[in-house]
């Protein structure tokens, strides 16, 4: 049995908490590299290590309370330091979890890997800087880097906007944004784990890969799926778009739960192509979009 050994950063985060047991079940020996060790790492040998999976990073702060410098220190400088160590090590592959936000904050049509990146936030810019550093270094023969750009990830342990929607539906409260027409890509954390495991066990061309589920859904579709998981009828209110946007602008000023950025995140269209990664790993993803959302909804039942 060919057991792979990998180093994992960010193991305590949402993705890490799902990835660690997933890989362990797949005959992968996972060694955790904590933040303190990561910050002081030098060019260590990483003897016997097949892959380095870099999840650790500073997530996008919707409340905008973070110091912008933190994004560059954590998402760029720490990635740079770890990648330098990888290049001088015996490890074969480096898997960096970036974000579609490193490419674009808004998408017209379908996002593919050949887009010219133009991030607007410090989060997206810091992720792009890390990507560009990785791409700019000479890659020794026999080594590979994989820059993964996931869209919105969900699954057990998720505490983002999907959880807020779930609580709304659970309390039989109406969803007031049904007048917005959108299509969004989602990513089940199990599909992300599946892709990462394939990258550990297969040799595919180095490069940038978008990661998403196959199908895109409207937010109204998502509300309906969450309601069905609770055996409830979805309550969709089509309040005029102009009035909702007016309320969001007020929320920008007086810190209401609904502000312009959160409204955009809930209602914008953001469709991501996953064709490149599926062709590269020569596999279909194991979980379809609706199945993944049902798994996430079921996990909310145990959390709440």
Your description of this structure?
- This protein has 304 residues and is of the alpha/beta class.
- It has a domain at 4-159 and 185-212 and 271-286: 3-Layer(aba) Sandwich (Rossmann fold), CATH 3.40.50.
- Helices cover 43% and strands 15% of the residues.
- The chain has eleven helices and eleven strands.
- It has helices spanning 14-25, 35-39, 68-87, 122-136, 161-170, 189-201, 219-229, 241-254, 260-267, 275-281, 289-303; strands at residues 4-9, 28-33, 51-54, 93-97, 110-111, 144-150, 152-154, 184-188, 207-211, 216-217, 271-272.
- The strands form three sheets. It has a six-stranded parallel β-sheet with strand order 2-1-3-4-6-9, with helices on both faces. Strands 7-8-10 form a three-stranded mixed β-sheet. Strands 5-11 form a two-stranded parallel sheet.
- The longest helix is centred in the first third of the chain and has 20 residues, at 68-87.
- It starts with a strand and ends with a helix.
- 37% of the residues are buried.
CATH topology of the domain at 4-159 and 185-212 and 271-286: Rossmann fold
CATH superfamily placement of the domain at 4-159 and 185-212 and 271-286? NAD(P)-binding Rossmann-like Domain
In whole angstroms, the N-to-C terminal distance is 41 Å
Largest sheet: 6 strands, parallel
Count of alpha/pi helices: 11
Average pLDDT, rounded to a whole number, is 92
Query: How many strand segments?
Result: 11
What is the succession of H and E elements? EHEHEHEEHEEHEHEEHHHEHH
Ranges where pLDDT stays below 50 over 5 or more residues in a row are: none
CATH architecture of the domain at 4-159 and 185-212 and 271-286: 3-Layer(aba) Sandwich
Q: What is the radius of gyration?
A: 20 Å
What's the helical proportion of residues? 40-55%
Query: What is the 3D shape?
Result: globular
Strand order of the largest sheet: 2-1-3-4-6-9
What is the highest CATH level, the class of the domain at 4-159 and 185-212 and 271-286?
A: Alpha Beta
What structural class do helix, strand and pairing data support?
alpha/beta
Approximately how much beta-strand content do the residues carry? 15-25%
């Amino acid at each position: 049995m060919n057991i792979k050994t990998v180093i994992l950063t960010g193991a305590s985060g949402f993705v890490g908490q799902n990835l660690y047991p997933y890989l362990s079940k797949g005959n992968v020996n996972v060694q955790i590299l904590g933040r303190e060790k990561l910050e002081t790492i030098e060019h260590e040998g990483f003897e016997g290590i097949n892959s380095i999976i870099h999840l650790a990073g500073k997530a996008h702060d919707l409340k905008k309370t973070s110091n912008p410098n933190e994004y560059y220190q954590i998402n760029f400088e720490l990635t740079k330091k770890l990648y330098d160590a990888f290049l001088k090590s015996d490890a074969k592959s480096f898997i960096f979890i970036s974000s579609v936000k490193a490419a674009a904050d808004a998408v017209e049509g379908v996002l593919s890997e050949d887009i010219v990146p133009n991030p607007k936030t410090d989060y997206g810019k810091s992720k792009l800087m890390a990507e560009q550093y990785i791409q700019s270094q000479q890659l020794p023969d026999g080594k590979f880097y994989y820059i993964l750009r996931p869209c919105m990830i969900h699954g057990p342990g998720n505490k983002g906007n999907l959880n807020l929607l779930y609580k709304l539906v659970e309390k039989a409260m109406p969803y007031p944004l049904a007048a917005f027409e959108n299509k969004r890509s989602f990513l089940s954390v199990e599909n992300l784990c599946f892709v990462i495991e394939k990258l550990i066990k297969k040799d595919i061309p180095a490069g940038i890969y978008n990661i998403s589920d196959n199908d895109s859904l409207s937010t109204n579709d998502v509300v309906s799926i969450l309601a069905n998981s609770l055996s409830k009828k979805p309550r969709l209110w089509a309040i005029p778009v102009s009035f909702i946007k007016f309320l969001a602008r007020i929320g920008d000023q007086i810190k209401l739960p609904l502000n312009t950025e959160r409204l955009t995140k809930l209602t914008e269209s953001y469709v991501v192509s996953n064709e490149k990664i599926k062709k590269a790993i020569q596999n279909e993803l194991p979980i379809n979009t609706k199945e993944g959302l049902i798994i996430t909804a079921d996990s909310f039942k145990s959390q709440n």
